[in-house]
Target: pyridoxal 5'-phosphate synthase
Amino acid sequence: MIGSNTEAESLSVELEKYVDKGAEKRRPNLTHFRRMTSTNGTGSKIAVTKNIVAEHEQYTRGTLEEHQLGNDPIQNFSRWLEQAIAEKVREPEAVCVSTATPQGVVSSRMVLLRKVDDKGFVFYTNYDSRKGQEIAQNPHASMCFYWREMERQVRIVGKVEKLTTAESDEYFQTRPLQSRIGAWASPQSQVIDNRDELDHRVEEFSKKFGVENPNVDDHRVPVPPYWGGIRLVPDEVEFWQGRDNRLHDRFTYRRTDGGEWKRDRLAP
Model:
C-alpha cells in the first residue's frame, strides 16, 4: 500500500504536436516474410503470410526496477512522456483508445492525448462518434501508449468522464481554424456518399461562420454541442519496459477501495 492519490503533487502537462523532422525513417525488416497462396473456401486464391518476422529484434534499451518508480502512476507517466519527447519519439502523444458496447463488443482507434493532470488523461472527440456513443453507454475504457524508440509501453484502464463545456471550448479555440470548421463539417463515424460531400459541408460551415479566407485564422468558431473533452480516470496503470529474451519488466498500479495505489511487479 503506497501513497494516496489525493496527496499527489498537482500536475498539468499540456501537449503540443511534436514533429521529428530529422528522424531517420524506420521501416520493418521484411526479409523474413514468406508468402504463400491459399483458398478462402470459394476457390479464390488469397495471399497468406507465414512467420511474419522469424527473428524479432531484442529489446536492449533499458531496465525497469521498483526504485525507479514513484508512488503515483500519473507522475510516473508524466516523467516517461517527458523522456519520450526528449528522445524525439515520433508522436509520443499518440495513443490507442479502446471502448466497448454494453454487450462487450470492443473497438479501438488511435487518438492524440492532449492533457495529463492529477485526475487523468484527456483527449477530445465528437460525442456522436462510435467511441462517443460507446462511452455514453459504457464508461469503462482503456489506453495503450507504445514508444518503440524507447521500447516502452504504458497501459491504462479506468472510467471516463466528460470535461465541462467551458473546458472544451477553451481548448477548441486553440485549434487551427480549419480544424474547428472540420469539427462542424464531419458527421464522424457516419456513412457519407463521397469526399465531395465532406468538402461541400466544409464550404457550407465556412460560409455560416463568415470565414472568407480559411488561411487567415481570425474568426471565433463556437464549439459544437456534440464535441468536447473526455478524461480517462485511471484505476489501473501498467508500465512495461522491453527486455531481451522476452523477459520484460512490468509494474502495475491498482487503485484500492480507499483511493490509494498498490504497486506490484508482474511476470512478463
Q: What stands out?
A: Residues 4 and 260 are 4 Å apart (CA to CA).
